[in-house]
C-alpha cells in the first residue's frame, strides 16, 4: 500500500520539550570537534550562526533537507549540531534524518540510530513517533513508496529487537490506522514476537487483518500463525488457515506441512493428518520421526491399531528406524484393546532390533498384564526390568500389586510391596490399593497393618484412605471402629466428603440404627456438603432394608422436590422392600409408577417381581412378568428361574417345575446347585427315583453337592426305606469334607433307628462328636426311644445321663419316653 504525499511547505511545525526531545546521538569520533570547514553549507551564513550563538531546530531542519542527496554529510551535520550550545533535538529532526539515511540504504546507521532512540527513556510514544514519521516523509523529496515502506518496517523491527513488545503492538496498530503496510519480513518478525511472548490471539488477529488486505504472505507467515493457533488451543483454526492458503496457491514448504499435521493431530483429525502426510511424501519430503510419532499416536487414540502399524512400517521403509517411543505407543494401543500378545510381539521386535526398552515401556506392558490378569508375565517383566537396572515407578509397582491382588497371589504382593517401600516410590495410591482390597475381602486387620506401615514412613492418609477403612469396618458391622476412624479423620483436619457420609449412613442402616444414619445426614448438610444420588439412594435403600419401605417411598417424593431424579436402582430398592414385607400389590404399583416416569425396568426389577409373585403363590402373574421380560429382550437370569421353580415345587406342581428347569438349559443358562436342591426337595416326597436321577445328573455336569443336597436325599431315602443308600450318601458326604448339620444327622439317626439298626444310629452320634457338631435333644430322644423299644432300659437311661452330661436339657418328649414308654408318638411329636 502506498502513502500519498501532499506538497511540502518549507517551514516545519515545531515540537518542544518532552514531546520533541531525543537522546543525544554521539558522533563517530567525539574526541575530535568538527572544524569550520567540516560544517556543511547551510542557507544561513557563518556570521548568522555566530551571531545567534545557538543552532536552532529551524537551522538543522533546513540544512538536513538541503543534504538529502548527501546522507553522509547529513549524518555528520546532525552529529555536529547535537553538540552545539542550546540545541534541542526534536522528533522532526530525527525523523528527517531517518528518512534520508533509509533512502541511501544506510541500514546499519539507521538501526543504530533507531535502537539508541527507542532504548532511551525520553523517547516519545510509538503513536507520536509514527505520526511524525508520516508527516516528515511529506517534506522529503525521496522515492516515497519504497523508502517509506522500509522506514516503518525498520521502526517496528527496532521496537521488537529492543524487547518492547507492547510498544511494537502500539506502533503496528498506528501503522494500520494510517493505512501503512510494512514489509513481509518485518511483519513475520512482529508475528514471531507475538507468538514468542504468548500474545497468540493478537497474532491471529493481525494475520487476519494482513491477509484481508490481499497482501501476499509467505510460508513463514503461515507457519507463525499456525503456531499461534496451537499455543492458543485452537488447532482447528491452524488447519483452516493452511487449507485457505493452499487453495490460494501459496507455495508451501515442509515446515508448514509439519505444523498443520501436528495441528490435525491435536484435533484427532486422523484423516486430515494422513492426507497431508501422504502429500509430503509425494513431494519428495521425508516426514520426521516426531511427525510419524504424532500421527501414530492419533491412530491409537482412535483405536485404529492396524493403521498405526502400517505407518510404523512406512516410517521404517522411509529409512527412519523404529524407536522406543513408537514401539511403546504401539504396545499401549494393543494393551488398551486387550491384545496383550500383539503388544508382546512388538516388544520382541523392538528388543531384537537392539532398541532398549525404557521405564515407560515396561509400565505399559505390566499395565497390559494387569488388564489381562496375567500375573506370571507381569512378574517376569518386572524381574527383567530390575535386571536391566531400571527402577519401576510407583505406577508400575501399583499395576503389579493390582494384578497380584486380582489373582490372589498374596506372596508376590508382599514381595513387590516391600520392594516399593524399600525403593522409596510407594505413594498414597500404593497404600490405598492394598487397604481397599483387604477391606473388600473382609480382612480389615490386615488393612490396618498396611495403614500402620503407611503412617510409620510418613505417608499421610487421604480422604480416600479413610473412606476405604471406614467401608471395611461397615461391611463387618463394626460401627464403633468406623466411628473412631471418622473422628480421627476430623481430628486430623481431613475433610470428609459425601462418600464418607454415605458409607457411614449405609453402615448404620444395615445395623438397623436409622436414627444415627439420619443424624449423620443432618451433620453433612450442616457442613455444606451437598448430597448426591449416592446419598439419596443410600437412604432409600437403607429404609427399605429396615422394613420401612412405605417411609422410603414418601421420602423419595421429598427428594424429587429437591431435584433428585430417581433411577431404576432407586425403584428396585423400593419394589424389593415391598416384596420382602409381603406387599406384592404395592410393589407392582411402584413398578407401574416407575414405568409412567419413563424409567426402563432392569433385569433386577423383573426378577424381584417374579420372586414376590412366587412367594405370594401368584404363579400365573409371575409367568406373565417372565413373558414381559422376554418380550423386552432382557436376558432372564438364573435367579428368576429359581424363584419360579421354587414356587412350583412348593405348590407340588413338579411338571411345571420340570418344564421351567428344561427351559433354563434352552436359553443358555446353566442350573446351579441351589436350583437342583430345589427340584430334589420337590421330588423327594413324590418321586424319589427322579430326585436320585437329578443327583446323578449333578455329578455328570460337574456340580458339587452341598450339605442341603445330601440332607434332602438322605431324608428322602430313609422315608422311602432305603437305609443303605442313605448311609452311602452320608459316607460320601463325610469323605468330601462336607460338615453335616444337625438336621441331617437327626434324619439319619431316626431313619436308621426305624430300620432297627440302633448301633448304626449310635455311630452317627459318635461321628457328630468327631466333627465337633453338638447333637440335639431330638437325636437323644430318638436313640432313647429306640433302646426302650428293644427293651434295653439300661442303655436308654445311660443315653439320658450322657445327654445331661453334655448340658442338654430334656424336654417333655424325653420325659414321656422315659416315664410312659411312648416310643413312636413322642419321637414323632419331638420333630423327628
From TrEMBL:
The UniProt entry, under InterPro entries, shows: PPR_rpt, TPR-like_helical_dom_sf
| Repeat keyword on record | yes
Q: Which Gene3D superfamilies match?
A: Tetratricopeptide repeat domain (1.25.40.10)
| Family, similarity comment | Belongs to the PPR family. P subfamily.
User: Mind listing the UniProt keywords for this protein, alphabetically?
Assistant: Repeat
List the GO cellular component terms.
chloroplast
Q: A Pfam family this protein belongs to?
A: PPR_2
PPR repeat start-end pairs: 148-182, 218-252, 253-287, 288-322, 323-357, 358-392, 427-461, 462-496, 497-531, 532-566, 567-601, 602-636, 637-671, 706-740, 741-775, 776-810
Name of this protein:
Pentatricopeptide repeat-containing protein
Q: Which NCBIfam families match?
A: PPR
Organism expressing this protein natively: Coptis chinensis
Q: Name one GO biological process term.
A: mitochondria-nucleus signaling pathway
Supply the source organism's classification: Eukaryota, Viridiplantae, Streptophyta, Embryophyta, Tracheophyta
Superkingdom, according to UniProt? Answer: Eukaryota
